[in-house]
Amino acid sequence: MSPSAKGTIKPDEPAGLRPKYVPLRKDQYTDLSDLARDLQDARSRKTERITENTLIRAAIDLITSHPELLAGDTEEEIRSGALARIRAWAAAEAVLVGNEGEEPIRAWATAQAALVGDTEEEIRSGTLERIRAWAAPEAGQNR
Q: FRET pair for 132, CA 20 to 30 Å: which of 53, 108, 112, 113?
């Protein structure tokens, strides 16, 4: 059994974090690196680095907070279903904020600035708040 499976944390790892190796496609790796670099450069406070791992942890928090987004028997079905649901939310919000002429995800990102924050916690909590607001039952009539 690997040390990470046993829960052993190496001395150089931040407290409470456990390693998990995840192979990425070339496009995923490039997009993730570019996004992390852009967010790192855009920070107004330089208190915490924004890295690829920061974004991966934030994404894990998003999907584990919304398991209803995930359904399917293959990686492709899970991914396409989740993206379709998010695009539907984005399109609904784009209509509500008057950006319906834009590509839905871009309109949503423009309207909500989905990845805003200078720390991992700010990015995670801000993005989760926006998704929770759209997933809330009282917002159902607006979707």
A: 53
